[in-house]
Amino acid sequence: MRRITSVYLSGPDAYHADADLLMADKRALCAAAGFIPVTPDADALTEEDPSEAMAREIYAQRVSRLKDADAVIVNLTPFRGPGCDQAAAFEAGVMSGMGKPVFAYMNVTSEDEAELSARVEAYEGASAGDDRVWRDAAGYEIEDFGLPESLMLWAEARRLYVIVTPEPHHDLTGLQLCLEAIKLYSD
User: Do the beta carbons of residue 88 and residue 11 sit within 8 Å?
Assistant: First the structure.
């Protein structure tokens, strides 16, 4: 097993109103744990005249940073709906495809939100049909394995911590637990 020295931090944090402070705190926690934090370039998201060319540059830059990192910690906190940030899910998949370990956490405000199916049911106005299968408003079956995220994200994560917190977009407990797990994994 290769020793892990650098960790890519994935998730919706770059879009947060306090992104600079939040990412500074996350980088400091990584450094204190002995890891080099690798983060997306948040400045790229603040361009005044976004374009397709800029989007391709951002993509290439992020994939390059993923390649440079030894592992990824993915923030799977529900973002703009019942599921995680789509880019974070993609980044987890890229790292998995490169054979690099994925660690994850999710912050929710109550135990009721700890399962993906419950969040989808609440968000989509789901209902059970005559077959007693829960479906969303469009008629799609709701995946229900009792997991906090889709089975593909859950199964790939070496560890996935679900933190119940009144501050889901600020709590860094999950990040700290992932950093501890990486230390154990790479020793």
Answer: yes
Span between the terminal Cα atoms of the chain, in Å: 9
Query: Can you tell me the distance from the alpha carbon of 6 to that of 184, in angstroms, rounded to the nearest whole number?
Result: 15
Question: What is the spatial distance between Cα 150 and Cα 56, in angstroms, rounded to a whole number?
Answer: 27
Question: pTM for this one?
Answer: 0.91
* Architecture category of domain 6-109+160-186 in CATH: 3-Layer(aba) Sandwich (3.40)
The residue extents of the domains of the chain are 6-109+160-186
CA distances (Å), origin 114, targets 7, 73, 106, 161: 25, 19, 9, 10
Among 14-18, 63-67, 71-75, 98-102, name the one with the lowest average pLDDT: 14-18
Residue count (the chain): 187
Dist CA 145 CA 175 (whole Å): 24
97, 128 contact by CB (below 8 A)? no
